[in-house]
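Pasting as-is:
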Amino acid sequence: MTQNNKPTPKDHGVSLEEVRRILPDVRPETLAQLYSIIRVYKCPSGTQLITEGDLTASLFYIRDGHVVVYREAHDGLEERQLADLNGGLVLGEISLLDGKPRSASAKVVEETELIEFNPQDILNLPKGHELLADLRGSLAAAVTSRMRDQNDKYIAAMEREMIAIRERQQFGQFFLYTMAVMAIGMIANDILSKHILKVNIYTQTFAWQYLLIILVPSFFVIRKMKIPFSELGFTRKGFRKSLWEGLAFSVLAMAIVFALAWAMEKLGIKETNPAPFLLGPTFSYFFHSLLQEMIARGFLQTSFQRFLDDKGGMRSVVLASVLFGVFHLHFGVMAVVMTAISGILFGMLYLRHRNLVGPTLVHFFAGGAAFWSGLL
């Protein structure tokens, strides 16, 4: 044993029964012999218990305390912790089994009480080689079990790394998508609608054409990222709660919109021109609202929350709402602001249940009320 602070041997104080619990698979006659050569130490914090590359082969049992196992820095690699061991665990068994140099270092990080089984002491006993062989045989099963656990942890770590790589690839696709859609919006606004085709951007025809232009790359990326429709809000989970909350907020939103339109007309701020309620355009606007919510909430907001690891979700709500508001720049700055503000409300509702039915209803009824009251 090498150490920075030399451990102090204690009076034995260890019962044979305790050693039997430490080495349950050792034969009783071997156990009695091993019991006679154990050493008990009280190691202060900082004790270097094992040093990587040493030819020592002692087996240690931690009665109480805390020991870390680590690989030392070498060949440009930083020091790396391998295990965090507390009372009731053993260490050093690999070198005892194969007789090779220590593969890692171990240091005491808080005062620790240890039991040491030194193979040289065992060999000095009568029939020492047989006793050591029996000890090694009993440890082999324990080592195999630990190696299986380490293998499972390694596989789990590899799977997490593969998921992380896939997430980074998907983020790249998502980033390119957002940039492409913003570019499409600018082109549709500044070139097509104003300079080439001179389309009236306030018609329902243009609204659907513009939405379809955005939907094409959206569906392409959704398919490329293999996002199931359930993750876009098309799910039965949370449907009932989202439905009732959506209806309640829809009634409130319509009341506010109609009251605002009435007040603005009475105060002479805006002369209202209510749009007639027509079944065809109304149904069209409902599906238009659904598809907008799928992109803004189901796709953008959900993607932001995943890639940013946004556990609370509010950063993703704001980001998705502002980004979707920018898609409405062709209607003017006020349209961007209103879309972003209303989007935050829709996003908060979506955040509660991960279902599109609630945000879609509020979007549809609030927007419909704006048309039917003449506010828009």
